[in-house]
Amino acid sequence: MLHTKSESDITSLAPSSPSRSPKRAVYYVQSPSRDSHDGDKSSSMQATPNFNSPMESPSHPSFGRHSRNSSASRFSGIFRSSSERKGNRKRNDKGWPECNVIIEEGNYDEFDDDKGFTRRCQALMAVCGFILLFSVFCLIIWGAGRPYKAKVAVKSLLVSNLYVGSGADFTGVPMKMLNVNGSLRISVYNPATFYGIHVSSTPVNLVYSDVVVATGQLKKYFQGRKSHQTRDVHIEGTKVPLYGAGSNLVVSDNAVQVPLTLEFEISTRGDVVGKLVRLKHRKRISCPLTIDSTSNKPIKFKKDSCTYS
């Protein structure tokens, strides 16, 4: 049975025909361009078609020619801009690209001043510490060397000439004169184990009733550590006026006995640490004796014959 189509049916079915579909509407979307970062307000216009189905919308993945072209253009633009920036960089002598130097603002002199002040303080503290340690060391050495005093002993006195005669002083007053010539032997021992000593003495005097009738001098010398030395001192007195003390002398048959006193002082100096640490000791010696003009034997001194102070 044949149905005849009405005019209204033909009209309703006409738009569904793909061959007679009307043209799609086109609208434009404004998107920010890459140059808008630099402040340029220009914009680019891109035509976007009106899609009638979800399959034709841009949200659906499309592998068409349009999407491939847009992606390629975006990536090529990125690589092209980066390669252009790299190509514009200057290179130094070693081939490395030159970079702009970042100049920091601010004055750093105050930090340099603080560092200099700190270094000066550290140097001053180091010097003070060294001086303190060295002083303590010298004090220890000085205290350790104090007990080592030189030991002095008078051994003997040999008188080769003793003569009492009459004469006059420089004013012409008559009085007795005394001539003495002899040699004194002294022994010095240095017990120090780590330093030597310099030995000297005051004039070695023979005194008769407060009158010095003969004198001598010990020559200065250096004596090593833990050493023992013996020195001879020449004593001499010629035509020494005795003034009023000569009246006590009795001369018989050119023989006379004269009571005398031997007096002198021994000084020792030990340089422990150069001239910085020195140890000094003094010892005063006094020995009473009687000289007989007729005897040529040396006078021996025992330990208790002299006073050491």
UniProtKB/TrEMBL annotation:
> Which ranges are annotated Polar residues under compositional bias?
42-60
Alphabetical UniProt keywords? Membrane, Transmembrane, Transmembrane helix
Segments carrying the region annotation (Disordered) are 1-95
Record field: transmembrane: 123-145
Name used for this protein in its record: Late embryogenesis abundant protein LEA-2 subgroup domain-containing protein
